[in-house]
Amino acid sequence: QVQLVESGGGLVQAGGSLRLSCKASGRTFSSSAMGWFRQAPGKEREFVAGISWSGASTYYADSVKGRFTISRDNAKNTVYLQMNSLKPEDTAVYYCAARGDYCSGSGCYPASAFGSWGQGTQVTVSS
Fold first, then answer.
1. Given CB 3.0 to 4.6 Å as the disulfide criterion, which of 56, 68, 80, 103 pairs with 108?
2. What is the DSSP letter of 121?
3. For residue range 6-33, what is the model confidence (pLDDT) as tens digits?
4. What is the chain's Cα-based Rg?
5. How large is the greatest C-alpha to C-alpha distance in the chain, in angstroms?
6. How far is CA 75 from CA 15, 23, 66, 79, 125, in A?
7. Where does residue 48 fall: left (phi above 0), alpha (psi -120 to 50 degrees), or beta otherwise?
């Protein structure tokens, strides 16, 4: 399994930006599709963005498309989520997750397919 630690969350005004980082330990990071998910109070965990093992393919929820960018640096065992034009509805705990395999394609990112999860980082967007 991969151990994951998120950082970069915080409080920001609407329209602002944050960059989340997820540092992974373990040799399987570079061969694993990665995802960012979020969970707001009283709501189910939802997919935000996903990236293939190589970084060549990325996928986004419609609600964040055009505002968020997922990227990865396999040399640093780190995946990032750049969040721009933040809205109050983006407020949630954000989780990084590792699938643990080379899955590539838009169907690779249901939460149930991810075996390793970070502890989460809080993002709060004020209006």
1. 103
2. E
3. 999 999 999 999 999 999 997 788 889 9
4. 13
5. 41
6. 32, 11, 26, 11, 31
7. alpha
Residues 75-126: tens digit of each pLDDT: 999 999 999 999 999 999 999 999 988 888 888 999 999 999 999 999 999 9
| E-strand stretches of the chain | 3-7, 10-13, 18-25, 34-39, 46-51, 58-60, 68-73, 78-83, 92-98, 116-117, 121-126
Which residue, chain included where needed, has tokens 């694993």? 32
Residues 6+ apart with CB under 8 A from 3: 24, 25, 26, 116
Q: How far apart are CA 42 and CA 52, in angstroms?
A: 30
CA 41, CA 39: separation in Å to the nearest integer? 7
Tokens of 62: 């419609």
